[in-house]
Amino acid sequence: MFTTGATQARLNINLKFYMEVSSMRECPVPKGVLLIIGGHENKGEDPKSQSQKEHPNPLEILKVFVEQLDTEDPAIEIVTTAGSLNEETFREYFDAFKQLNVRRINHILHNSRDEVIRDTSALDRLEKADGIFFTGGDQLKLTSLYGGTDFLLMLKKRYIEENIVIAGTSAGAMALSTPMIYAGNEDVQQVTGEIKVTVGLEFLKDACIDTHFIDRHRFVRMAQVIASNPSAIGLGIGEDTAMLVKDGNKAEIKGSGIVVVIDGFEVSHSNILDFGDKVPLSIRNLRVHLLTSGDIYEIPQINPPHL
User: Fold this and answer.
1) Are 159 and 188 in contact (CB under 8 A)?
2) Nearest by Cα to 237 from 169, 182, 141
């Protein structure tokens, strides 16, 4: 097989990492932290503006991100790849984090998979960053551009081995899980087979994350995902709300809204196999939990860890 120098170097990096993981007798507990945000988190907007309601604790979610960085002069990378108004989005978060006294704020933006593969400077910055923040947009752009790249491999390696903070909001949060919803809105969510699911970035396995959950009426679409993947947990996160996840599965709720947890472990019947017949979804014995700020939830790990 012919390989370029860059390709061979990448293969060497991948082989070294997988050999290290394979040598462990048990699945490693991540040392990193995830902050999974439901979208529209407060960024210090003027409460008098028409678009922003009075907020009891401005910048609360972003404060949680900064507090988890655990260093006096953190460097953060804001990844706007999922979006379309990239510079505008970066400036919005830049200003918000400046209010929280973060001085080293950098921007990562990729527009194609080829650009990701060739961008060695992003790898250098990723290696030095204390925190990574994925903004909103289209979660499928994140998985299709970053899946299987050195960028994602390095981020996962650091998440497992180091105290890095990885945050995502809206689409940036949805991409962190597997399974991952990428299509199907409230107009079709009640019809079996109309919700499209793929593999996410897999920082949380056997969990599906959905955002803007209350405001965009997404309960039924998550129920459909769980009916077709009953070993997974559905995490429906409201706006200005987040799950802070440590040790890979120990979550604490932050923010002003609620998190809806849906599990299908006790589902006794569903008609999810009737896809294509355009019939409404039917499920029995679905379990639901409502969590709010300060609540602790341990994400179940029912599948034995394996490579």
Assistant:
1) no
2) 169
CB count within 10 Å of CB 85 equals 12
Residue 276 clears pLDDT 80, i.e. is over it: yes
Contact by Cβ (8 Å): 140, 174: no
Q: Which domains does the chain have, with CATH numbers?
A: 29-43+57-298 (3.40.50.880)
Single out the residue of 223, 234, 196, 213 nearest to residue 281, CA to CA. Answer: 223
Tokens 């990378």, located at residue: 77
- Nearest alpha-carbon partner for 172 in 206, 146, 191, 205: 146
The confidence score (pLDDT) of residue 307 equals 64
Predicted pLDDT of residue 295? 98
Residue type, 115: E
Quick one: residue 296, left, alpha or beta (phi over 0 = left, psi -120 to 50 = alpha)? Answer: beta
Q: Give the predicted TM-score (pTM) of the model.
A: 0.89
Residue type, 295: D
- Report the alpha-carbon distance of residue 172 to residue 140 in Å, rounded: 10
Q: Rounded to whole angstroms, how far apart are CA atoms 135 and 149?
A: 19
What's the pLDDT at 304?
Answer: 77
**47 three-class SS:** coil
Query: Is pLDDT of 242 > 90?
Result: yes
Residues 6+ apart with CB under 8 A from 266: 285, 287
Q: Helical H runs in the chain?
A: 5-22, 60-68, 86-99, 113-118, 120-128, 139-146, 150-161, 171-174, 219-228
